[in-house]
């Protein structure tokens, strides 16, 4: 192990100094007292100064000989195995120091991490569940997960991805209940990633998907530790990326996206009601504008007479056909939603007023849209956010334009056909080998493991 | 029995409720229609049982694979070609029937070619899916639509205007002899398991055809037959119903949601029927495409690693449908559907013969 | 640039196809404010020579806010022609929007046309798909046009009184016979039942619509108009009602019973030896609604029996009227066919032998359960 390095010790040192000499934070320090010498090479911005002082520099001056010092250093738990020049350079960028003593190179891991504060949940709040989410440091995250799942079969494998950025990736799963087929697929896919830079798990989500142009998410992103634990115990694989407070859960099927973590904390009937409400919201969001176009322009006899008269009356004075009106209102609503993500907090209140009251009422007064259209669009906007996971919500927002298009060209027939086509598209997708849109009614374990009918 | 087996059969049953089967039965309402219903139930159940038992011995293999092993190639190619064509015709009849219904009831101003093309656009995508995914789609459609259909049927029978007297008059004609065409039309609803020709590839676990499965199938089938025969009679009058072109749909037009947003039940029924007919056409054409690509396959016909043979067949299907739809009248449609139903018993006999030969050779 | 175009070729093609289909109007895209809804249609005998029918349409005018509507909400169009479809087509030339018959819920036939063949008149309604099968059919007296053009004061905007009369969500009355189009058609076609329609009258000042009696049609014979009380008894026998009132006069005591549960059933018995009879049972249960004297609770039994006898008399009188005029709105012929195995000539036997000699054996059981809140 040390032999390879001992031969090219000087080469090693010169390689390191050459690599890092232009960075201002590279430190090359020689410790010397009496006959003991040791050389330290490290990058000071990522090294923990206190640890350095305590574990490396102080003992040097307290231990009698170099031999003692080397023995001390080799028995420290922070020592890392030497695997090659690239590894040494890589570890130095992460916060390890190279100690050269008695002609041998030792690598010690004393990194300083600033991002390990555990954060509050802000994307998926619940009323009664845990309030702490993942932090941005991978060691802290793994600590959080292990502290909640005290099972020896919890396996964590570390890898490095990204050819340039070399981020640490942890693959977490429960070796007793994990779906082996899915695990294989995920590992194979990670190995075949060639991207030079992977910064977030969201990017990973896109890269792990086979198709280049996909619409519906096949894996879930979450920051909540309790959701991660539920999924691990259910046999799923969780990926944690260093520097990210969001973890990736794979595989994920359609019905996972429609469940919130509160479903497990509330009484049965309350949960059932909430679930029905969510699906109702999904259907309303998808079909309401298209239904309006299909019924008012193709078959007004479907609805009751009073409703038809009222729709007809509210369209008095609107200059363009119904589908342009719907499209116009939908685009305005989309602009509003996109803009409110980026609004500074000071303007947020004004924007709501502008959007809601003025745009809505004024547009009707100016006969640019009908009153019924305003109600439809607001009902639809509200019901988009009933979907618990955001990725599915975004995808649904796009799909409803497809439904609108087909309702415009085909009426009710086009609407129903497109919905059937959407069901077919979802049934055709699979998430890492698991069917995306299959109902697990009979709860047979063979089905859950991905076998056939 | 796996629940997907039931889905395939039930979708076939509910689709035939909307197709020409009620019309053929009602044409013979003063003849032996009731006796043919009673006769067709045991025949249909017997066929289901035989098909189920056969496929249960060979889990995971579809008929083309079995024929590869045990039957000479020449017979296999011939038989599979016939099956492909027959399944294509079945899907085609459903497409045409439904397009006529849509044109008549929902959008009379639309071009018939346009309606057919819209439906076929989605079927195109669907027929190219994997068999497993087709089953998932069937399950979803079944769960979404069949409870509503059952609700509507219950509503129809408990309607104030459903006169039992008309139904009793119909029953009083029960002492006539059935005809071949009525029996084959009524038992057509039980031919759903024939789709296992391809779908058995997906059923990799051992199935078993028990009394329970037969009872469920029998109950559902009897319900479908009785509803599609008696409901139009009860709502539309015994002698009147012979003059009505689409008895099922017109009967549902007489229903009335009093307290809901939609008043005329016929629109709800049309949409539900669309979903179920879509599922049925999807199954039929999927089986047809799979069978035909098994027989005729152009290996070199590729474009960017996708083999184009199924696309070729689908385009041929599409063009044929467009031609046929503009050529037929409604009366011809009913007549040809009747011929199609009459064809099936012969086809099934040949298929049973093949089953017997394969069983014998597999044991040996 | 060329490479980009090559890749986008398919996408561009799809976009062009989609754009084309959006611009086409060949698929029936017509905005709702380019349609005008026809609510009711009235058919009368034409006045001009050479034409048979006079068609009146009642059109709905949409207003911006239904709650604040003032002024006229409907407009009317009239035309004479030989055939109905022709009249409608000619009327199209008088408006700027497309007629939408999807909400047409009432068909009124003028009184003089009743002696004509009704099936010819209703033919167009049954053939075209956009007429609902659940349209209400009624007879208009004196003419259908007058009935249609009446706008009673109690009518709210967007709530058409012609619809509310017949819908169960509106007024519920035993004097109104509700008859749907499909019901009319099946009764017309079937041997053994005759159709019955309500009659809508307009009062002298044309401000009110009065529906309190009905008419039985038959194509061979003259129509028979029933008095309000006969209509009530018909409704009772047909099990169409949830509640009704009986006004009984016993010596010098007049009392009104409000019935809230009624049930009728009957059987037709024919045997070789005796004359055919119908055995009918009518069960009425209710409470006293109004009386002009103090009623002792012990007298209830006696009052019930007397009421039963009175109702029996009414039913028998009605039946004899039907028999004399040879009409059968209650469907006795149908019931006869339904309870006997089919043989050739079964119905002609009914018509010639059985029905003219039929006797009615009705037993009414009125149960007055209480005298109300006071005695």
List low-confidence stretches of chain B. none
The biggest beta sheet of chain B reads: 2 strands, antiparallel
Number of domains of chain A: 3
> Mind telling me which CATH architecture of chain B this is?
Up-down Bundle
Name the CATH class of chain B. Mainly Alpha
- Fourth-tier CATH superfamily name of chain B: Amino acid/polyamine transporter I
**Assembly context of the chains:** heterotrimer
* Overall 3D form of chain A: elongated
Please state the overall shape of chain B, judged from the principal axes of the Cα atoms: globular
- Helix vs. strand class of chain A: alpha+beta
Task: Return the average pLDDT of chain B rounded to an integer.
Answer: 86
Estimated structural class of chain B: mainly alpha
Ends distance of chain A: 53 Å
Q: Beta-sheet strand percentage of chain B?
A: under 5%
Gyration radius from CA atoms of chain B, angstroms: 21 Å
Work out the radius of gyration of chain A. 30 Å
Q: Work out the helix count of chain B.
A: 15
Q: How many β strands of chain A by DSSP? A: 12
Order of helices and strands of chain B: HHHHHHHHHHHHHEEHH
Overall domain count of chain B: 1
List low-pLDDT spans of chain A: 444-453
Characterize this entry briefly.
The complex is a heterotrimer of chains A (453), B (364) and C (375). With 453 residues, chain A is an alpha+beta fold.
Task: Characterise the protein shown here.
The complex is a heterotrimer of chains A (453), B (364) and C (375). Chain A is of the alpha+beta class. Chain A has three domains: 108 residues, no CATH class; 115 residues, no CATH class; 170 residues, no CATH class. Chain A has 17 helices and twelve strands. Chain A has a five-stranded antiparallel beta sheet, sandwiched between helices. A five-stranded antiparallel beta sheet of chain A has the order 6-7-9-10-8, with helices on both faces. In chain A, 35% of the residues are buried. Chain B is globular, with a radius of gyration of 21 Å. Chain B has 364 residues and is mainly α. The mean pLDDT of chain B is 86. In chain C, a hairpin with a 7-residue loop joins strand 11 and strand 12. Chain C is globular and about 90 Å long. Chains in contact: A-B, A-C, B-C. At the A-B interface, helix 16 of A face helix 6, helix 7 and helix 13 of B.
Topology of this protein?
The complex is a heterotrimer of chains A (453), B (364) and C (375).
Chain A: H1 2-7, H2 9-20, E1 26-33, E2 36-43, H3 49-62, H4 66-74, E3 79-80, H5 85-94, E4 96-101, E5 104-109, H6 138-148, E6 154-161, E7 167-174, H7 180-191, H8 201-208, E8 220-222, H9 225-233, E9 237-241, E10 247-250, H10 254-257, H11 268-297, H12 305-314, H13 322-342, H14 345-365, H15 371-384, H16 390-428, E11 430-431, E12 434-435, H17 445-448
Antiparallel strand pairs in A: 1-2, 2-4, 3-5, 4-5, 6-7, 7-9, 8-10, 9-10, 11-12
Helix pairs in contact in A: 11-15, 11-16, 13-15
Chain B: H1 3-18, H2 21-27, H3 33-56, H4 63-70, H5 73-105, H6 112-127, H7 131-157, H8 164-171, H9 180-187, H10 196-199, H11 211-236, H12 247-253, H13 265-295, E1 302-303, E2 306-307, H14 309-327, H15 330-363
Antiparallel strand pairs in B: 1-2
Helix pairs in contact in B: 1-7, 1-11, 1-13, 2-9, 3-9, 3-11, 5-6, 5-13, 5-14, 5-15, 6-13, 6-14, 7-13, 8-11, 9-15, 11-12, 12-13, 13-14
Chain C: H1 2-7, H2 9-23, E1 35-45, E2 53-60, E3 74-81, H3 84-92, E4 98-100, E5 106-110, H4 118-121, H5 123-127, E6 136-141, H6 144-149, H7 161-166, H8 181-189, E7 196-202, E8 209-216, E9 224-226, H9 228-237, E10 244-250, E11 253-269, E12 277-291, H10 300-325, H11 332-338, H12 346-354, E13 359-368
